[in-house]
Amino acid sequence: MDAMVRELSYAQAIQEAMAIAMDMDERVFLMGEDIGVYGGAFQVTGDLVERYGTERVIDTPISELGGAGVAVGAAVTGMRPIFEFQFSDFATLAMEQIVNQAAKMRFMLGGEVSVPLVMRFPAGSGTGAAAQHSQSLEAWLGHVPGLKVIQPATPHDAKGMLLAAVADPDPVMIFEHKLLYKMKGPVPEGYYTVPIGKADIRREGRDLTIVATSIMVHKALEAAAALEAEGIDIEVVDLRTIRPMDKQTVIDSVKKTSRLMCVYEAVKTLGIGAEVSAMIAESEAFDYLDAPIVRLGGAETPIPYNPELEKAVVPQVPDIIAAARDLAKGVR
Amino acid sequence: MAGASKAVADSRANLPFVYRQYSAEQLKQVLHKMYLIRRFEEGAEECYTRGLIHGTMHLSIGQEASAMGICMPLAEDDQITSTHRGHGHCIAKGAEVKRMFAEFFGKTTGYCKGRGGSMHIADVAKGNLGANGIVAGGIPIAVGAGLSSKMMKTGKVVVSFFGDGANNEGAFHEALNMAAIWKLPVIFVCENNGYGMSTSTARSTAVKNIADRAAAYSMPGVIVNGNIFSEVAQASHQAVARARAGEGPTLIESKTYRHRGHSKSDRNRYRTKEEIEDWMSNRDPITLFESELREFGFIDDKGIEAIRSAVAQEIADGIEFAKASPSPDIRTIQNYVYTEQA
Ligand SMILES: Cc1ncc(C[n+]2csc(CCOP(=O)(O)OP(=O)(O)O)c2C)c(N)n1
Ligand SMILES: [Mg+2]
User: Fold this and answer.
1) Where is the Dehydrogenase E1 component domain (chain B) (predicted)?
2) Helix crossing, B285-295 with B229-244: angle to 10°?
3) Coil, strand or helix: which one is B160?
4) Angle at alpha carbon of residue B209, lines to B291 and B162, rounded to 5°
5) Cα–Cα distance between B30 and B43 in angstroms, integer?
6) What mean pLDDT is predicted for residues B251-269?
7) How many CA atoms does the CB half-sphere of A100 hold within 13 Å?
8) Which domains does chain A possess?
9) CATH 3.40.50.970 fits B6-261+270-326, yes or no
């Protein structure tokens, strides 16, 4: 029989996944700043400290570099830490341990150890928190062999991919867009996993492929629904994992539609859009392209505080509609 | 900056430090500014509640004596680095509230032209190099400013404000060590309000006092009651004198308390109502300073009333100025990413 499916918020789905992981495996524990009695800056850990105690829901001092290193050390020696950064921006303080240690330890030691570590990063703009609390840094980590980097877009995937991450023997970095935390969606009860490294086609279409990540999946779906009335039939691919990337799903989609647009919130250049575009240019799908590839990404600026400017620096639904309409010209 | 004459000084010989050091006019200015900080933050909070300001903010209500006491002996061109809880530092260093409100409203007349908001408030002309969204982010920057002061022989002193939570970041330790080995004119000011967000210092920090950390970096570690203006100002005076004399840095721990939650999303589940109530009613820094001023004959009810109403007017005018100011043009979005070159 199928598991009961309820409506949960993205934050609740993550919390449920962490609780299941802790119930299933006593090596799993949580670390982070203000994740105990405060419940986490975004209330993702919520009241887990009441259920699992301060031994398994550990408030760290404000020490990102040290804290990340402690998590790495615990992971290589038998524990299964889930480390929460209060904001993804603070990954910058912990880069040493993430990039030089967690990502490379297994390799440098010739496979003698693994680093079964999960790190969670609340990311993205839209909350008025300005330049140091709004960044999208997933491509930074996506550049590092040894790490796996995922961006679940729905409550269902947030739970299933977190559980897959905990089961994974290697370090998995999860970027959670802060504006998704309150978004609700169907989530099955109990244990299930959503595989890392597998994209999902959220909407099938014939005319053009939009490859989107995280919150942009929802914006792309909205744009696709709006353009349906104009007779433009858009396929939306939710990349879900940026390393290792599911190339085949994107290639197959582009072969079908012959048009590709990438939509992501991070700064446009040197990012996920460049990677997807180049991957298509290198693949057999290149010959199928009927128009130049389009990238819609964040502006080449830090995130501004002023609300209108803040909206203007990341792709919004009207931007996607306009760009898709343009790209679809001459389809039929 | 001694303002009191010899005769006046003699009559004040038994009073606490600031009453011997400063003129009545200067001390009334301090009260004025402490009220300005308090009312500015109350005004900002109200604007936030009414949806006029977005994002979040960290209020320093209850910590005004600390900001004012530290900045008291600083000259206009001395510099500070501040924190996410930085409105008080900004005003104490000389900022105008109308341009701060304008920044909170995201307007071009704001100190950061609407790009920074509360968490990045700055006033570079007055020596405030900026609040910071990164805990401990400003501490090494202050050391760098101290290095400039030494290399360029400007004589400037640099104050780095930070919270108790910041003392567990690596940047704090690395910065203190460098300031000490190079004898830089830097004053490290830890405003210990008991908590870094929800985490008490007892749970986060291995030493009892943050000032105890100073021993590891061979600098004086001074503890003051951060809610008593005179105590804070006296410690700052000594540290400034030491810095100007080329003797190197000082770590001052100013023990204080924030009345409000950490930010706008705090449910205060990590502390008791009684604790908050106790600090608010028995150790409020403005009340304490005001009653000393009254007791020692520096001000009377009328004088206090005059300050309060002048401050109220300044706040109301500041909010009006912010509302009436223009928003940035979206076409200017690329401005300030890099330095404009002719
Ligand atoms: C590097 C970094 N880690 C975490 C945060 C989130 N954060 C902002 S303020 C704060 C608490 C800081 O405590 P403290 O230094 O004592 O200053 P207070 O807020 O008490 O003034 C935290 C955890 C941050 N902004 N930067
Ligand atoms: Mg504190």
Assistant:
1) 33-330
2) 90
3) strand
4) 75
5) 20
6) 95
7) 8
8) 5-188 (3.40.50.970), 200-327 (3.40.50.920)
9) yes
How does strand B221-225 pair with strand B158-163?
unpaired
Domain ranges of chain B: 6-261+270-326
- Quick one: average pLDDT of A179-196? 98
Which one, of B127, B37, B56, B51, lies nearest residue A305 by Cα? B56
Q: Look at residue B339 in the predicted model and tell me its pLDDT.
A: 96
Other beta carbons within 10 angstroms of residue A195's beta carbon come to: 13
pLDDT higher than threshold 80 for residue A1: no
Give pLDDT tens digits for A206-231: 999 999 999 999 999 999 999 999 99
DSSP SS3 for A180: helix
Looking at the CA of B167, name the nearest ligand.
1
**At B10, is the pLDDT very low, low, confident or very high (cuts 50, 70, 90)?**
confident
Test A309 with B136 for CB contact under 8 angstroms. Answer: no
Mutate to test the interface with A, among B103, B115, B141, B172 (most CBs of A within 10 A): B115
How far is Cα B293 from Cα B312, in angstroms, rounded to an integer? Answer: 20
Q: How many percent of chain B have pLDDT more than 90?
A: 95
Contacts of A61 in chain B (CB under 8 A): 165, 168, 196, 199, 204-205
Which ligand has the nearest atom to the CA of B262?
Answer: 1
With 50 as the cut, is the pLDDT of residue B1 above it?
Answer: no
**What SS3 class is residue A125?**
coil
The reported pLDDT for the residue numbered B3 is 58
ipTM surpasses 0.90:
yes
Instruction: Write the CA distances from A219 to A147, A265, B49, integer angstroms.
Output: 28, 11, 29
pLDDT above 70 covers a percentage of chain A that reads 99
Q: What is the DSSP letter of A60?
A: P
Tell me which residue in B56, B133, B205 faces A132 most closely, judged by beta carbons: B133
End-to-end alpha carbon distance in chain A: 45
Q: Under an 8 A CB cutoff, do B135 and A62 touch? A: yes
